[in-house]
Design a protein that fits this description.
With 98 residues, the chain is of the alpha+beta class. It has helices spanning 16-32, 38-45, 49-61, 86-89, and strands at residues 4-7, 13-15, 65-66, 76-77. The strands form two sheets. It has a two-stranded antiparallel ribbon with strand order 1-2. Helix 2 (38-45) packs across helix 3 (49-61). The chain is globular and about 30 Å long. Residues 1-11 have low confidence and may be disordered. One of its GO terms (biological process) is proteolysis. One of its GO terms (molecular function) is serine-type endopeptidase activity. This is SOS response transcriptional repressor. Residues 13-73 form the LexA repressor DNA-binding domain.
Length: 98
């Protein structure tokens, strides 16, 4: 399932891989009270710094996140949490009790 998957405005959608990054940004921000740095994403996804940076640029270009130039940890999610694959990403089955 590498085609388009959730929608954040009813007009744009994102790929599964983009959804995993968006879900990570959402969960990290809620856990730590601040957005992740690119190095946090690099460690989590086990990818190179240029790979993470390219994904961040792509997410921003597609209107899925917003950043403030020159400000560290300034990623702002522009996607509704309901559109993110968070439960799947965390391997939580909502029909089973925790």
């Amino acid at each position: 399932m590498s085609q388009k998957s959730g929608e954040h405005t009813g007009r744009q959608s994102f790929t599964d891989k983009q959804g995993r990054y968006l879900a990570f940004i959402y969960v990290y921000s809620h856990m730590f009270g601040r957005p992740p740095a690119e190095t946090d994403m690099q460690r989590h996804f086990r990818v190179s710094p240029p790979s993470v940076h390219q994904m961040v640029v792509t997410l921003e270009r597609n209107g899925l996140i917003r950043r403030q130039p020159g400000v560290a940890r300034s990623i702002e999610l522009l996607v509704s949490p309901e559109a993110l694959p968070i439960l799947e990403w965390l391997e939580i089955n909502p029909s089973k009790s925790l």
